[in-house]
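Problem: given the chain below (532 residues), write out its structure.
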Amino acid sequence: MTDTRSRRLELSRRFALKSFGASAITGLSLLSAGGAIASPVFRQYPFQLGIASGEPEADGFVIWTRLAPQPFEPGYGMLPAPVEVRWEVASDERMQNKVAEGTAIARPELGHAVHVEVAGLEPNRPYFYRFYSGRERSGIGRAKTTPALGQPIDKLRFGVAGCQNYEEGFYTAHRYLAAEEADFIFCYGDYIYEYRGDRMRAQWNGEVTENVRPHYGQEVQTIEDYRRRYAQYKMDPDLQAAHASAPWFVTWDDHEIDNNWVSDLDQDGTPASIFALRQQMAMQAYYEHMPLRASSMPLGNRMQIYRQQRFGDLLDLNLLDTRQYRTDQPCDDRWAQMCDEVKSRDAQVLGKVQEDWLFDKLKSSKAQWQVLAQQIMMMDLDRRIGEGEGRNVDSWGGYETPRDRVLAQVQELGKDSVIVLTGDEHQNYAGQLHLDGQRPGARPIATEFVTTSITSGGDGVDERSDTALIQKENDCLKWHNAQRGYSICEVTRDQWTTEYKTMDYVSRRGGSIRTRKRMAVAAGDPGSLAEA
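Solution.
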């Protein structure tokens, strides 16, 4: 052993004795060839944040975990040193037929998270995985590879979920989503909320209610704050079950960083140079806790999260980023407003580079269905009841020029089986997309399905009275609902069906779920949207 390694080992032993007690020393005395702790002994279970898979491809997927024996303590119960984590993948749920295994390094620079990019597997089939560190073992997760590029497939079934404010409800819907055994799950964003922990909160209708379970701490600002907030969410057993049930494709919306942020702007007047520091920390924490590939690792306050995954010849999934490249919201970001800025020719939602990338992907697609999986509603609904017009200016409706460009491109390319998947609204919607929703053309350009929140907004109601009035003024909107839940998309060559699953309540445990509505659209005919 070299002098350098001897000193490192002695420092590790001293730190362990000071921090963890003598029981940890034996495990920490073995270092791998790369200098990582090979046999740690944990005072508490290190896999408290669960496991996850994501980013599936035809030959593999990402598997994720993060070691955090004491998630809310400074240092989250870990030494500031790299630690070995072993992993294995099997073709059977009992993990007897192993098809891949290896060792990853959980590094302190990334909060002791690991992102293993498993490859060399067979396409379009389920696999199972788990992790080990020292004598500890994680639970078993299920993942699934995608069909091979261009492979003919007849059916795909996946879930859509997001907006899971911890304070406003229990994640019972995630437990039901886990039982669906979907091919994959698309999370449209607002995985965490950055707000301080409060006992009471004012709702959208002015009613003041008691939060179901408060956040830990104040509004998140630092990397440690964000890590603790993700830990609080990920320690929920129902959310862990949903992650373990299927691979996830994740995007963010605003609350992963700060409410209604766009580009380098927050809504509180923070100088851009200071907000950039918060973005950098938030993006690192997001990467640390999501099953993403190394290509999405943030560089400063920038992170590559728009990407595409193809599912044989049936579906191309285009995951978009509507926050990082967007210009400031018009009309001072006020609700149900209309102003000249809405029509600004300089406005951006995707930014030129991402927009060009999307147009190239749409143009080259040979799949039956093209999907725009993103965060904010594309229907330009008039939100002002009665005279005048008002938009949700934090959605595509506040950005007419870039919205028109995207829809005109879809129309020009002759893509007549385009589906837009959206969240953010805390309500379920199904509708049709026109260049001008107030003056719709003879034929819709695309179909939009908006999925409600897992918990955000509390229990909700079957139909909000204000939304019922809004629907009467917007012919493009065909159905709405204001309960909590998720959606299941069943895709065949001939038809797309979105099944809206809603909870009777989330303010206490034990809620029941039901299929509230099934809305379907025929391939090649966006005007056919109707109840299935």
